[in-house]
Amino acid sequence: MAKFITIGERIHCISPAIREAMATRNPEAILKRAKEQLEAGATYLDVNIGPAENDGEDLMKWAVQLLQENFDNVPLALDTANKKAIEAGISVYNRAKGKPIVNSADAGDRMSYIDLAAANDAIVIALCSNGPIAADNDERMVHCQTMLEHGMMLGMEPTDLWFDPLFVVVKGMQDKQMEVLEAIKMFSDMGLNSTGGLSNNSNGMPKHIRPIMDSAMVAMCMMQGLTSAIVNPCDVRLMETIKSCDVFKNNTLYADSYLEL
Amino acid sequence: MPFNQKPQKFNATINTVEIGCGEKAIKLGGESVFPFYTFDGPIDNAPKVGVEISDLGLGDAVPGLKEFYGDAATPAEMAKKAEAMEGADFICLRLEGGDPNGENKSVEELVAVAKEVADAVTCPLVVEGCKNVEKDADLLAKVADALQGKNVLLLSAREENYKAVGAAAGLAYNQKVGAESAVDINLAKQLNVVTTQLGVKAESIVMNVGTAAAGYGYEYVVSTMDRIKAAALSQDDAMLQMPIITPVADETWNVKESMASEDDMPEWGSKEERGIAMEIMTASADLAAGSNAVILKHPQSVATISKMIKELV
C-alpha cells in the first residue's frame, strides 16, 4: 500500500496575508507557508485562489510557477471555482513529482471539472454531493457512481478520481459521523482513492481540542481506507498520528526515527 | 488467450554506489527492479563477487584454499592472488587480528596492513574491522584516513559506533560507509536515517543487513531482504534504497556442516566440498533475496557464483 497522502491546506486566499500576497504578487508569504507545510511533511500543496474571476488565469500560473520553481516541482492541487484558471495553471505545471489535482468536482453543477481533469490528465477531487450534503450513504454512493462512470467514459483511470465523502461537523451532526466513515470503507472496498477536508469535523471547537479530534478522526478514517486528506500539516499531533497509522498499515517501514522522516 | 507480459514498473531506484577507482571500479545498485527480474527492466550493474582475505592469513583453511594461495605469505601477496581469482570483482580485507579478545594487534599495525594491501592491488577494496565496536570505531576511522583517494568501503558502522565510523569514512575522508544491522529490518532503516542525519550522503552508504548460513534461520534473512527491496522500490523509501553487501564466507565456514571433520562425520563426505556447497547455497540465496554483492572465500565458490550471475543478468 502507498503512504497516506497529505494535501496542505494553508495556501488559501481566506487568510489575509495570502490574499494580500496574491493580489500584489508578492511571493514572500506564500513561500513561507509552502516551506512550513513541506517541512512538516505535506506531500501535495493546495493552492486556493478563491473565485478569482478577474485575473484567475494569470494568478494561478504565477502561483504554480512560483511554488514549483522554489520547491523542486512540488505537486499541487489547484483550487478555484474558475475553471480557466485551473487550465492555465496546468498549462505551466511540471508533473515530475505527481499529476496536478483539480479541486474540485461534484455530481451537480461542478460535474464539468471531471471533464477538465480528463482533458488534462489530472487527478480530480470528486465531492459526493450535488449541492447539499448527501442525506445518507445511499445518496452519497449514487453521486460516487455517477462521477466514476462519467470519468471512466472520458477515459480516466478510476484511481484518478479521489472521492470526498464530505466531512461533517460534530457540533450539530454528531449522529452522522459514522456514516461518513462507512462511506470511506465503501470507496476503499471498490478500490477507489479518497480524500477530504477532515478537520471540518472539529469546526467550532476550542483551538486546543481540534488537533485531538482531528487526530482521532484521521486514525479512524485510515482504518476505513482513506488514502489522502486535505489538512493543516503544521498540526504536529495530526501528522504524528498519520505517520503512526502508516506504520500500522504497513504503508511505511518502521524505524525509531520515523517521526522525523 | 495470448499471454500479455506486463512489466512491474517502479518509480524508484536503488542508489548506485561506486567503490574503487579507475578501470576496475565497481558500481553496486542502480536497478529499479527486484533481484534478477531482468524481464521487468534492465539491471545495468550486475551483482558483484568479492574475495575475503584476512590479516591473520589462512589459519586452518581447507586444502583448496591453501593450494590457491600457495606461497603467498603476507596479506598483500594474498591480495594479489585474490585479485586474479576467476570471477572476483573486489577484495575484502578482514582485520580480524584487531580483536581485543584475540591477537589484539594495534591499530597502527593493522592500518599498515590495509595500506600494503591497497597499494598491492588495483581492484576495489572493502575493509572489514574486527567486529569489536570500540576498536573498530578507532581502527576503521584510521583506515579511512590512510586509504584516502582509494574510494574504499568500510565495514561496518553499527548502532554503537556509527558516529565515529560514519563521520570518518563518509564525511572526513570521502570513503563509502557500510551500515551493519544483524537481520533487523527496523534497525537497518534506522541506521541509514541516523547516518544520513550525520551528514553522510545516502549515495555513500551500502547496507550490510546480515545473513545466516543456509539452514540457520535463513528464512528470516530472506524476509528481511525482501521487505527492504519492497520498501525501497514499491514504497519509494529513500532510507532503504542503499544497495546491500553480504559477507557470506564469515557465516558459512563457521557452521558444523563446514567444520565437522571427515573422521567425525564420514557419512557427510568431503569437508571441503561441504564448505563450498554451504558458501554457494547461501550466496545464491542472498543474491536472489536482494544482495547487490556477496563476499566469499573459496575460488570454486567465487567462480560458480560469478558464472550464475552472468547467466542470469
Total beta-strand segments of chain B: 10
What is the distance, rounded to the nearest whole angstrom, between the alpha carbons of the first and last residues of chain B? 30 Å
Uncertain ranges of chain A:
none
- Name the CATH superfamily assignment of chain B: Dihydropteroate synthase-like
Count every beta strand of chain A, where a strand is a DSSP E run of 2 or more residues.
8
What proportion strand of chain A? 15-25%
Strand content of chain B: 5-15%
Overall tally of domains of chain A: 1
**Low-pLDDT segments of chain B:** none
Biggest protein-protein contact in the assembly: A-B, 11 and 15 residues
Structural class by SSE content of chain B: alpha/beta
Number of folding domains of chain B? 1
Instruction: Supply the CATH class of chain A.
Output: Alpha Beta
CATH topology annotation of chain B = TIM Barrel
The backbone outline of chain B, from C-alpha atoms, is globular
CATH architecture of chain B: Alpha-Beta Barrel
Oligomer: heterodimer
Protein model, in words:
The complex is a heterodimer of chains A (261) and B (313). By secondary structure, chain A is α/β, with parallel strands linked by helices. Chain A has a single domain (5-260), classed as Dihydropteroate synthase-like (TIM Barrel), CATH 3.20.20.20. In chain A, 44% of the residues lie in helices and 16% in strands. Chain A has helices spanning 16-24, 27-39, 56-70, 83-91, 112-119, 137-153, 170-173, 177-189, 210-224, 236-248; strands spanning 5-12, 44-50, 76-80, 101-106, 123-127, 161-164, 193-194, 228-231. In chain A, α1 packs across α2, α2 packs across α3 and α3 (56-70) packs parallel to α4. The relative contact order of chain A is 0.12. The mean pLDDT of chain A is 96. Chain B has 313 residues and is of the alpha/beta class. Chain B has a single domain, classed as Dihydropteroate synthase-like (TIM Barrel). Helix content of chain B is 40%, strand content 14%. Chain B has eleven helices and ten strands. An eight-stranded parallel sheet of chain B has the order 8-7-6-5-4-3-10-9. A two-stranded antiparallel ribbon of chain B has the order 1-2. In chain B, a hairpin with a 6-residue loop joins β1 and β2 (26-28). At the A-B interface, loops of A face α6 and α7 of B.
